[in-house]
Amino acid sequence: MAGVQVSNVSRSFGAHKALDDVSIDFADGGFYALLGPSGSGKTTLLRQIAGFDFPDSGRIAIGGESVERVPVEKRRIGMVFQNYALFPNMSVADNVAFGLSVRGEAKAVIAAEVKRALELVQLGKLGGRRPHQLSGGQRQRVALARAIVTKPRVLLLDEPLGALDKALRVDMQIELKRIQREIGITTIFVTHDQEEALTMSDRIGILRDGRLVQEGPPEEIYDSPKSEFAATFLGDANILRGDSTGTGIRLPDGTAIAAGAGATLAAGAKASCAVRPERIRIATDAGSAGRANGNMLRGQISKRIFAGNNSTYFVERDGQTLKVIVQNTGIERLAEGQDVVLRWSPESTVLIAAS
């Protein structure tokens, strides 16, 4: 196993800069997510690490060894694609054995390693089947077994669960995490699914327009985003804009919004505050909303969406729509058209400098 270091990597395709001076470390044995919208550079970065493409500048090291000009077949990388890329005319066992066969390993070694890999992904009894006889989740496991059977230093996953339905995707998230922990391999996966990134990864790197916007543990990025983009891309967030007061902002109508302890920004500068929808309390009057919470805004419910265990309220306030997520506990629900008070604590408010 090995860590991966990406240092000041840039890659352009004509006038388009797919990667712009990206630096990120993937520590040995970690599970990392590269998250971003289409065209953000996440798949391009994965291809640079794999060796399918080479950077224009910068350095890529695997286990401390520079590999930015080393071809893919010499990097000892395992990779799983969204479409799995299984050979339809081969059995499950032969698909898994393919990489070892190309290496010229002895038949006994191949048989033992294929058996071990299939048992790891819980497909030990299905080695004789063909891919078309498997479910989507089983085919995904075969692709994973094929990627790890050669004992790569790094495992790369490109939207590995994108072809699965939601229920199966959740199951496979758990399985992928279990397998990764069991073999202890450095794993980097590309996704556009925020929930997937939060659920599976130890650390997340958010990319936008070829640049690394923010990197860190999921909880840190979710609780302390450094930009409006990070706040709204990883999870959901209400963004309030105004002038900095030093420890919060003042909205155009004069309302002061306080941020958490330690939040500081030059007074008078343009700034914004981000607050997660589930951290706002909503009520029909200021008293029942809870006086202990410091920030307060008034508005009117324009829409309510019921989603089983919770409801999302859309509240119109001074030309802006704010979103509030409330757990459905069986108490009386608020109706569209009602005037309401929103309250939340400064500790739930993130102060962000204008970008």
Structure in words:
- There is one protein chain.
- With 355 residues, the chain is α+β, with helices and mostly antiparallel strands.
- It has two domains: 4-223, Rossmann fold (3-Layer(aba) Sandwich), CATH 3.40.50; 236-353, RNA polymerase II/Efflux pump adaptor protein, barrel-sandwich hybrid domain (OB fold (Dihydrolipoamide Acetyltransferase, E2P), Beta Barrel).
- The chain has helices at residues 42-50, 92-103, 107-120, 136-148, 166-183, 194-200, 218-223, 228-233, and strands spanning 4-13, 16-26, 31-35, 57-62, 65-66, 77-80, 154-158, 186-191, 203-208, 211-216, 238-244, 248-250, 256-258, 270-275, 281-283, 295-306, 310-317, 320-327, 339-344, 349-353.
- The strands form four sheets. A six-stranded mixed β-sheet has the order 6-7-8-3-9-10, with helices on both faces. Strands 13-12-11-14-20 form a five-stranded antiparallel β-sheet. Strands 15-19-16-17-18 form a five-stranded antiparallel β-sheet, with no helix packed on it.
- Strand 1 (4-13) and strand 2 form a beta hairpin.
- Helix 2 packs across helix 3, helix 2 (92-103) runs parallel beside helix 4 (136-148) and helix 3 crosses helix 4.
- The longest helix has 18 residues, at 166-183.
- The model has no long low-confidence stretch (mean pLDDT 91).
- Its EC number is 7.6.2.11.
